[in-house]
Structure to design on (163 residues):
């Protein structure tokens, strides 16, 4: 998959967000190989809460910012059947909100980088047609993939504090 990445303020320039996104994607393709199809393209926007708020209101009728928005452009069955040869295929768009990501990371006592990596993995799985809101079983399956992918890049289980 090719990631088209755009990084806007207020994401701190001290972190190589594009490299983080590429490492998260590479790890994810180890546990969700359908995302490794070379024909796939995904746009990833690192932006502000204000921009995500506008997108969330416009596209989801939710008048608030959120940590990550995903806009899938291919059905899961089509993704799974997609041959590796052929023209580029847009998987979808992701948008991450800087201030929400930073606040949530602080609340969890983790780095913003680790939380952003988790949100990228989470958003990519949504683009791949997985959805934690369908059922508990779907949530557990999605969380297991996230946990495995993040472990591959040295990030602890983001759900490990559950009892």
């Amino acid at each position: 998959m090719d990631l088209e990445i755009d990084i806007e303020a207020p994401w701190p320039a001290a972190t190589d967000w594009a490299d983080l996104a590429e490492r998260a994607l590479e790890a994810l393709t180890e546990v969700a190989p359908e995302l490794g199809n070379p024909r796939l393209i995904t746009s990833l926007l690192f932006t502000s809460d204000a921009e995500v708020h506008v997108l969330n209101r416009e596209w989801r009728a939710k008048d608030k910012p959120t940590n990550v928005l995903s806009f899938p452009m291919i059905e899961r069955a089509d993704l799974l059947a997609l041959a590796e040869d052929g023209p580029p295929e847009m998987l979808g768009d992701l948008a991450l909100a800087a201030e929400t990501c930073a606040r949530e990371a602080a609340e969890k006592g983790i780095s913003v980088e680790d939380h952003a990596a988790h949100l990228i993995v989470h958003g990519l799985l949504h683009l791949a047609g997985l959805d934690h809101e369908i059922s508990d079983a779907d949530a557990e399956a999605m969380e297991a993939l996230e946990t495995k992918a993040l472990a591959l890049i040295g990030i602890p289980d983001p759900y490990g504090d559950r009892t």
Notes: The CA atoms of residues 34 and 81 lie 9 Å apart.
